[in-house]
Amino acid sequence: MAFSDLDGLYELVKSRRLDSARIHSVRDLTRIHLDPHYSLIVAVDSDGGIGPMQADTVFCPAYELGRFAIRVPLLEILCSGAIPLAAFDMLTMKMAGVGAEIVHGIRDELKLAGYGDEFHLSGSTEDNVPTKMTGVGTTIIGLVKERDFRPGSSQPDDMVVCLGLPKSAPEDTVRTDDPEIIQQSDLRVLLGISGVHDILPVGSHGIGYEAEAMARDAGLRFVAEAGCRLDMKKSAGPSTCVLASCRDDAAGLLSAQINAPVTLAGKMSTIN
């Protein structure tokens, strides 16, 4: 790593002259260019009114909430091609009881992705003011090589495949052990398949919105598959499914190696 580049970055930050060439948004991520070869990637998410507390709108066990709360930024970091460096949680309740169960869930979801007790996790709780509603904020910082950054890497004629099904509360009962949502084990397989280009977790805007964003980032056009039974507008809540743009041969491997449902959503096409 060129220290002169980091020295220059430090001076830009110090003088408040850091511009969009060095720090900018990519989808729901923030990308901070450290030098010509490496970037920091920051992903965040929040949950409010979902949990086991008195004033929550949607009930969810604290442990499950913890797993889902860290799942979204974790998937965003991993799908971008970055390697997680550290995770942070912000809880709007005291640590004892609900807070501890949420943190337990966060830690277990990180372990499922291969980041055990040695991985840095820290955060903050509200131990001064009594609260009646659950609130959780999560952040993950990752590091990526420029050549490994996936957003915008889709190619013309790529298949766009959806892994998992879109589900969200309160319409659906969303569980971490649901075989119809993508799991960390599925994602590890997906990341290792040659011919897979861009990968994008689906959020509250739905599959159609995310597929169009994936295409736009690559200067392409998304063409939905005729007769596709996926609800393109349905929220996927805590990223219960992800989209992958890939070659034909890679698309065939996904059905054989991924446990979650695999559905052809469409194709990438050039803009006429």
Describe it.
The protein is α+β, with helices and mostly antiparallel strands and 272 residues long. The protein has 2 domains: 19-148, 2-Layer Sandwich (60s Ribosomal Protein L30, Chain: A), CATH 3.30.1330.10; 159-269, Phosphoribosyl-aminoimidazole Synthetase, Chain A, domain 2 (Alpha-Beta Complex), CATH 3.90.650. 29% of the residues lie in helices and 28% in strands. The protein contains 6 helices and 13 strands. It has helices at 3-14, 62-80, 95-112, 184-191, 207-217, 248-257, and strands at 23-26, 29-33, 38-48, 50-51, 58-59, 83-91, 120-124, 135-145, 159-163, 196-201, 221-224, 242-246, 262-269. The strands form 3 sheets. A 6-stranded mixed sheet has the order 1-2-3-8-6-7. Strands 10-12-9-13-11 form a 5-stranded antiparallel sheet, sandwiched between helices. It has a two-stranded parallel ribbon with strand order 4-5. Helix 3 (95-112) links the parallel strand 6 and strand 7. Helix 2 packs parallel to helix 3.
Look at the structure and name the CATH superfamily of the largest domain: PurM-like, N-terminal domain
Mean pLDDT: 94
Total domains? 2
Strands, count: 13
CATH level 3 topology of the largest domain: 60s Ribosomal Protein L30, Chain: A
The name of the CATH architecture of the largest domain is 2-Layer Sandwich
CATH class of the largest domain: Alpha Beta
Number of helices: 6
Give the spatial strand order of the biggest sheet.
Answer: 1-2-3-8-6-7
Q: Could you tell me the radius of gyration in angstroms?
A: 19 Å
